[in-house]
Amino acid sequence: MNGAASRSQEELPIDPHRLEPAVNRLCASIMGDPRTRHISAAYLPSREAVVHLVDRLTWVMFPGFFGPRDLSPDTLRGHIGAVLVEASAYLCAQVSAALRYDQPIEPGTGYFGRPSAECDAQAEHIVMDFIAQLPETRAALSLDVQAACDGDPAARHADEVIFCYPGIRALCVHRLAHQLYRRHVPLIPRMMAEYAHSQTGIDIHPGARIGRSFFIDHGTGVVIGETTIIGEHCKIYQGVTLGAKSFPKDERGRLQRDVKRHPTLEDHVTVYAGATILGGDTVIGAGSVINGGVFLTNSVPPGHVVRGPKVELKLRSNPEMPPANFAI
C-alpha cells in the first residue's frame, strides 16, 4: 500500500518518441496561425514585468498601506526614491519594447535585431513625464478614497477603503494606465487594465476619462468602455455597463476605432446596480439618477430620475415551510 501511494506521487515519464506526433502537429498549428504566436521577435512587453510595475507604483500611491510598513517622515524620501528608481527602470524597458513592437519591422531584417536608440529615448521621455504627474494622480486617488467614505455608510474610515474596496484598487490602476494611454504607449495600458480586471472584476478601459471624486460601490461586473467620459462626484454600483450601442464602419466595412462609442456622465450622476447605458451620443445630465436595472440608449436632461416599469409582485404561502420547532 505504501509503495503504491509513493509511486503515485512520482513522475512517470513517457517515451519522448511517443510524443513526436503531437509535437509535430502543434508546431504545424503554431506556424500555420500567425495570430496566436510571437516567435523570432524579442520586442514585446512582459506581462510579469508590468504586473510587478503596477504593484510597485501602488507602494507610491498608498505608502505604508502597501509595501514596507516601517516608514517614517525621516525614511519616506529614501523609500520613494528607491521605488521610483526601480519602477522607472522597469517602465523604460517595457515602454521601449512596446514602442519597438508597434513599429512595422519584419523579423529577419538587419534592423530588427538591433536595439533602437530612438525608442529608448522616446521611452525615457514618456517615463519622466509620467513620473512627474504622479503627485496629481495621488491627489485624484485621495479624492476617490474620500468619495467612498462619504458615499458608503458601511465604510468606517479611509484605511478600510484603501485596504478592502476593489473600486479603489481598480481606480488606482486605471488612473496610472490612463496617463500612459494619453501618451500613446502601446499595449501596456491595456495590460495594466486587464490585470486590475482580473483582480477586482471591474473592467475599465484605460482610455476612459474619469473625473475627480469617483466612487464604484461593490464593483463586481462593472464595465466602462474606452470613450466613456465621467464627470466629477459620480457614483456607480455593481453590474453597471457604460458601453457601445453600435460599432460604426467605414465604406469598406471595417470598424471605425477613433469615434466616440460610449456614454457621457456629467457631474453628480448616480447609476444604480445592473443599469446599462449605451451609445456615444448618450449624455446623462448633471445631478441625474439612473435606477437599477434600467436599459438606456437615450440622453437624460440634468436633474432627472430614470426608472424602469415597476414589477408586479405576487405573494403566496410556501407549502414547504418548515415547522416552528424545526432544528438541524
Main features:
single chain; 328 residues; alpha/beta; UDP N-Acetylglucosamine Acyltransferase, domain 1; 2 domains; five-stranded parallel sheet
Question: What proportion of the residues is helical, as a percent range?
Answer: 40-55%
Domain count: 2
Q: Strands across the major sheet, in which order?
A: 1-4-7-10-13
| Rg, Cα atoms, Å | 25 Å
Task: Count the DSSP helices.
Answer: 9
The top level CATH class name of the largest domain: Mainly Alpha
The structural class is: alpha/beta
User: What is the molecular shape?
Assistant: globular
Predict the CATH topology of the largest domain: serine acetyltransferase, domain 1
Tell me the total number of β-strands: 14
Q: Unreliable stretches, pLDDT < 50, 5 or more residues? A: none
CATH architecture field of the largest domain: Orthogonal Bundle
Distance between the termini: 39 Å
Fourth CATH level, the homologous superfamily of the largest domain:
serine acetyltransferase, domain 1
Q: Largest sheet, if any?
A: 5 strands, parallel
Report the mean per-residue pLDDT as an integer. Answer: 90
